[in-house]
Write a structure and sequence with these properties.
By secondary structure, the chain is mainly α. The protein has helices at residues 10-24, 31-66.
Length: 71
């Protein structure tokens, strides 16, 4: 039975980004690896922004359903 891969959650994305940031701070990191890390970092930032925007929209939807006034 094959497992379906679920989308990473916020914490997983942020942890990966944090690890990449630490790697990029290494003085002995070669340019090719640094470039790959930088590119992956940009992908992660975009995914985190999308995740947060989706969460924000969900909160708005829930507030509308429950007619809770926005702060």
């Amino acid at each position: 039975m094959a497992k379906t891969k679920s989308a990473p959650n916020y914490e997983a994305l942020k942890s990966e980004l944090d690890a990449l940031m630490q790697e990029l701070q290494r003085e002995d990191l070669d340019v090719d690896t640094a470039l790959k890390h930088y590119e992956r970092g940009l992908e992660l930032v975009q995914a985190l922004e999308t995740y947060l925007k989706t969460a924000e929209n969900k909160v708005r939807e829930l507030k509308a359903v429950f007619k809770t006034p926005e702060a």
